[in-house]
Each structure stands twice: as C-alpha cells, then as structure tokens.
Amino acid sequence: MDSETPRSVVLLGSTGSIGTQALDVIARNRFEVAALAAGGGRVDLLARQAAEFGVAAVAVADPRAVPELKRALAARGADPVVLAGPEGVAEVAAWPCDIVLNGITGALGLTSTLAALEAGRVLALANKESLIIGGPLVKRLAKPGQLLPVDSEHSALAQCLWASGPSGTDLRVVRRLVVTASGGPFRGRTRAELEGVTPEMALNHPTWSMGPVITINSATLVNKGLEVIEAHLLFDIPFDRIEVVVHPQSMIHSMVEFVDGSTVAQASPPDMRLPIALALGHPDRLPEVSAPVDWTRAHTWTFEPLDDRAFPSVALARYVGEQGGTAPAVYNAANEVCVDAFQKGALPFLGIVDTVARVVGEHIPGQAESLEEVLGADEWARARARELTA
Length: 390
Ligand SMILES: NC(=O)c1ccc[n+]([C@@H]2O[C@H](COP(=O)([O-])OP(=O)(O)OC[C@H]3O[C@@H](n4cnc5c(N)ncnc54)[C@H](OP(=O)(O)O)[C@@H]3O)[C@@H](O)[C@H]2O)c1
Description:
Shape: globular
Structural class: alpha/beta
Bound molecules: NADP nicotinamide-adenine-dinucleotide phosphate
Pathway: Isoprenoid biosynthesis; isopentenyl diphosphate biosynthesis via DXP pathway; isopentenyl diphosphate from 1-deoxy-D-xylulose 5-phosphate: step 1/6
Order of helices and strands: EHEHEHEHEHEHHEHEHHHEEEHEHHHH
GO biological process, one term: isopentenyl diphosphate biosynthetic process, methylerythritol 4-phosphate pathway involved in terpenoid biosynthetic process
Organism: Acrocarpospora macrocephala
Enzyme class: oxidoreductase
Distance between the termini: 52 Å
Keywords: Isomerase, Isoprene biosynthesis, Magnesium, Manganese, Metal-binding, NADP, Oxidoreductase
Largest sheet: 7 strands, parallel
Radius of gyration: 20 Å
Strand order of the largest sheet: 4-3-2-1-5-6-7
Number of helices: 16
Number of domains: 2
Helix content: 40-55%
Strand content: 15-25%
C-alpha cells in the first residue's frame, strides 16, 4: 500500500457489524471513504458516518429513509449526493474508488457485488451470500485478484495458501482445506436438546459479536455450510477436500494441509478487524489492528469433529454445493426466510434446517449463469419456504 496516497474505500453496509468495524480500521489508517450505503434502518448513525468521513455519496436501500437522512446530514453540515433504492446502492457499489467492501447482509448483496466487479473495482467480500448464490456468475466476472475474502476463515485460508510455495499459491501441493467452526452456542447438544432453543439463546454467540442473521446461522451451523461453498468457489478445491473441524476457542481461523503432511494454520484472537484490515490494505498488513495472541499465558485450544446428526446443515450445504447451479441460491434463500420466521417465533429452531432441507429436496437445479436465473431460483425458494413456515 502506497503510504503517501490514501486508499479510497466504498463501504456497503456501513452501519452493520462489519461496516462499523471497517470504519474503525479506516479511521486509524491511511484510507479515505468515497461513499457509503446501508439499508436505511439506522439513519442517524449513517449520517454521522457520512459527516465524519466526508463522503461524496450516501445511498439507502429504503427510499422512505431519504427525508430523515437528508435532515440528519444537514444537521451535521454534510452535503453528499444522496441516492435511494437498490439502484442507488448499486450506483454506490460502482462509485470510483480503489476498493469496495461489501458488508451488506444476505442475498440482497448480489447486485452490489456484480456492480462493483463490472465497474472493475477490487472487491473485499464480507457478503459471502452473493458469491455463494451467484457462483458461476460472480466467478466469471471476477478477474484474478479482484475478489478478496473478508470472512475470517477464508482470510485465514488465503494466508495459509501463501505458504504453498515461494512464488505464490500452488494448489497442486494442497491436500485439503480445514475450515474451523466455533460450534456456536449449542455445541455438544444432541438434536433432542436443541428442541427448546429460543431466538435469545441463538443470538448469544460464545466467541464472535456479529449481526443477527449470521449469529443465528452460526447457531444452526448454516454459516459453516455457506463457508464450505465459499471456500470451494474462492479456492477451486473440490468439496471432498474441504474439512470442517470444531474449535470452540476461535483462535485458529482455518488451516491448509499440504501433500507433505504439514499443516499451516492462522491464529489470532477472534476480531473481524484483522481480516477486514488485511483485505482493505491488501497486499500489505496494517500495523496494530488488534491485540495478538498472548503467548506468555497458558492456552488450551481444542479440536473436535462436527456432529452431523445434531447439525445437518453442513452436509446439506456440501450437497447443494456439489449440485451447483441454482441449488446454493435455494439453500441460502430458504434459510433467510426460515431465520426470519424463527426470529419472529413462527418456526422452532430445528425447523430452520429441516425446512431448508425440504425446499432443497423439492428443487430441480438449473443453471446460474445469469442474474435472472439466480433471482428466479431465489424467489421460488423464498415463496416455498414461506408456504412451509406459514
Ligand atoms: N459480522 C461479522 O462478524 C461477520 C463475519 C464474517 C462475515 N460476515 C458477513 O458480512 C455480511 C454483513 O454481516 P453483519 O454481521 O455486518 O450484518 P449486520 O450487522 O446485520 O449489518 C448489515 C448491514 O447491511 C445493511 N443493509 C441491509 N439491507 C441493505 C440493502 N438492501 N442495501 C444496502 N445495505 C443494506 C444494513 O443497514 P441498516 O443498518 O440500515 O439495516 C447494515 O449496514 C454478511 O454477509 C455476513 O455473513 C459478517
């Protein structure tokens, strides 16, 4: 990173967990923020961010938030271009800058991912859903080096892969990717013991503080299933060479096993600012992003296999990942509907993955080569999941 010229960043989902942590990294390093986008649910925070970072444009997905946003901006003496609706968010995604960070949650992030890639921007991707549902479409658009992972596991895998050879990543010497999982708040429970789980219990993650959807996805382990598909798409490793191992302390963020029998792991305390900083500063490491592991203290880090009976979501994700085409979009869309129903008390915890499995079972996968094909499958899965959870 050229230390003289600030790198300009467009931040999508700036008011969320990833977005606010990204702004923390940005404020302490040589970056400037070109534009921001959010849903429109936290207008005051968005206006404060826009004023503090002096951005040129702000977009909100919900046009009804615009009058309040304009008032909040004016009150802070800020006068950026204000854009509205999904088109406004996509316009910000393609805004001139050095790097776009997509921290939008869910399938809604796909249009922004495509807009950023089409505009030729380097894309730091926290919004894993857009890669997973738009697999072939996103991969066709992304040029080598254009897509940088922000998910801690994939950031770890990328770092471990740097150890594959002195002249860069050499997949021929990779035996398997080992994706770690904290196991979520219900690790060790049997399926029967998951019956009475409430949204409050599922929102209480033991090691990570994140937005509500990914937190519930971590409790069902759907998030780990999505991450297995994400690893396959990012690193071109077949599903039977991607392992999941439960590591409750969340200190090892993933590992790569090489053909010679050695394994390289990436370790750091669970702090998303590290993978965010690594993507924003790529290829450089930024100074003092987070406190490192304290090696003067005793630590016990444990690893255990995943219980596929209590948590069938990872095996189901492998199945849809192998099917390819529209199958991952259906898995994700059905899950988003079910998570919403669970949060509203309309679906029991175990009903989330059971319903996703039913919708996936009914789906005949088609091609996912165009946005229409992906969105068509996404809409079908949402409608079917709504019927099943009504
Ligand atoms: N949080 C983590 O530690 C973490 C770790 C790894 C990966 N991720 C991934 O990062 C993404 C974001 O997660 P999160 O935990 O940061 O979620 P979050 O806290 O719920 O934040 C979501 C952000 O997206 C905005 N948003 C919602 N709908 C939008 C739309 N249609 N257009 C533009 N912006 C919209 C929200 O705005 P409002 O505030 O206006 O609603 C908010 O700024 C997810 O894909 C997640 O899987 C997160």
